[in-house]
Amino acid sequence: MPLSASAIPPPPLENEPVAAARESAETLALMARRRSTKVAHFVEPGPNGEEIDALIRVAARVPDHGKLGPWRFVVIEGHARARAGEAVASAIAGDAGVDETRLTAARNHFRRAPAVIMVVSTAAPHPKIPEWEQQLSSGAVCFALLVASHALGYAGAWLTEWPAYDARARAALGLAEHERIAGFVYLGTAREPPTERVRADAIARITRF
Fold this sequence. Notes:
Order of helices and strands: HEHEHHEHEHE
Largest sheet: 5 strands, antiparallel
Radius of gyration: 18 Å
Shape: globular
Oligomer: single chain
CATH architecture of the domain at 34-77 and 111-194: 3-Layer(aba) Sandwich
């Protein structure tokens, strides 16, 4: 049973000490065994509106050079999943070779989980803050959202897939021309426990300067 949103503490006030470094065996254990759920394995329930808002508040506490907040969130849940799917399906309906099977898959794209949070990178030229750093902040938000969701008791998966790279689909989902999709974070309950997969050998990729 997932924890309630009340398990997430309120954000601290400005200049309040935050004890950012503190021992937490539970956090280390969660990170050591963190695993995304396959998108085909999501079932109800998913987080409710209060939980989603709380998760986003937590996820937004990422490194953010210049305090720009170079990201925004679009929550796709309930009937909005079908509307979003219809929007991206309409964007490709006139393409050569697109058949009804492809359109049906597009219409169901966001119905594969109870809730989807689209993390939008709003990175833009800035006199002091490189766009790359702004984009990195959006990626950090996606992962923080994933970890926070796991900690609250929900399964999650961070995906991009074709809508993130199709300008027409992005426009259909309400993005401005300069905005990009950092990720769709799918949230819900896993119908079966995920199993470990092959991973890159991190130790083999360590050097010391």
